[in-house]
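Page 37, continued from 36.
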């Protein structure tokens, strides 16, 4: 116990130094900024936008893959990047570009670093898939908006891990999650402000995981994120200490039959779409 406490104090110091030296925090890639500027310019044609996106083959592949996912029920799959842009629309392309950038920002420096990152990324993409599917099934929020909000709500979790990129010793999973509970929200807010994203995403970070959070009578973005977080935790950690689903403020905004709960304590509409959720998550990996 003494050694563990000593290790934790060392790790805390590393993360604190990262917070104090904000120039060390990850910045969005130049190409991402170029694409986002082009997307916000109503004068840029689809062809020019496709050529710009094509400079990042991994992003182009992700957009093609995502446009063919379970979120979009189109009889004919898009064949070209221009088809994808037309199908998704500039708002959706912007959000997927951000999703791609989030993953690409965090370089893996060792096998231990990679193992911990991939474990975290798998959890985050599952949660994002659940959130996007909830948005598609329930309405009120665009699925891609929900997907990006879900990922951005835990960007601080990834930033905590990035603090150890130059360290020979990576914290154990237990100590890492302890650090996340202490620092991830603050780091997430700092990074999203640096990236100049919409304030709505910053508000989501602050309220994520607060099961009692109430924001108006209508189902909204933070409700979807918290419902997704609840189900992702429940699926990945059966022993996690969670309230009953009926105790979540977000749950009480659901009307029958959308609020039916199965024997496992999860929303039946998510259980019945589990394969689609996994397919969405897989497009992000």
């Amino acid at each position: 116990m003494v050694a563990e406490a000593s290790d934790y104090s060392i790790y805390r110091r590393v993360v604190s130094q990262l917070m104090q030296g904000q120039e060390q925090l990850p910045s969005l890639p130049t190409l991402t900024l170029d694409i986002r500027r082009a997307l916000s310019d109503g004068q840029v044609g689809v062809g020019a936008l496709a050529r710009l996106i094509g400079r990042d083959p991994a992003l182009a592949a992700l957009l093609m893959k995502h446009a063919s996912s379970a979120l979009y029920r189109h009889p004919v799959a898009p064949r070209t990047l221009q088809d994808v842009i037309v199908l998704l629309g500039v708002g959706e392309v912007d959000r997927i570009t951000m999703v791609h950038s989030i993953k690409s920002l965090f370089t893996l420096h060792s096998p231990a670093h990679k193992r911990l990152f991939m474990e975290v990324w798998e959890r985050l993409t599952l949660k994002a898939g659940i959130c996007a599917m909830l948005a598609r099934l329930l309405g009120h929020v665009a699925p891609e908006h929900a997907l990006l909000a879900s990922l951005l709500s835990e960007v601080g979790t990834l930033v905590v891990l990035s603090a150890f990129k130059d360290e020979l010793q990576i914290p154990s999973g237990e100590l890492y999650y302890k650090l996340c509970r202490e620092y991830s929200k603050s780091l997430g807010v700092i990074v999203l402000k640096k990236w100049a994203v919409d304030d709505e995403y910053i508000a989501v970070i602050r309220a994520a995981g607060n099961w009692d959070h109430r924001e108006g009578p209508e189902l909204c973005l933070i409700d979807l994120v918290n419902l997704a977080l609840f189900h992702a935790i429940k699926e990945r950690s059966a022993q996690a200490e969670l309230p009953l689903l009926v105790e979540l403020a977000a749950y009480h905004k659901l009307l029958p039959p959308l609020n039916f709960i199965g024997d496992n304590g999860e929303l039946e509409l998510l259980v019945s779409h589990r394969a689609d959720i996994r397919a969405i998550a897989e497009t992000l990996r």
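The longest helix spans residues 111-138. Flag for discussion at group meeting. Residues 108-284 form a domain with the Hypothetical protein af1432 fold (CATH 1.10.3210.10).
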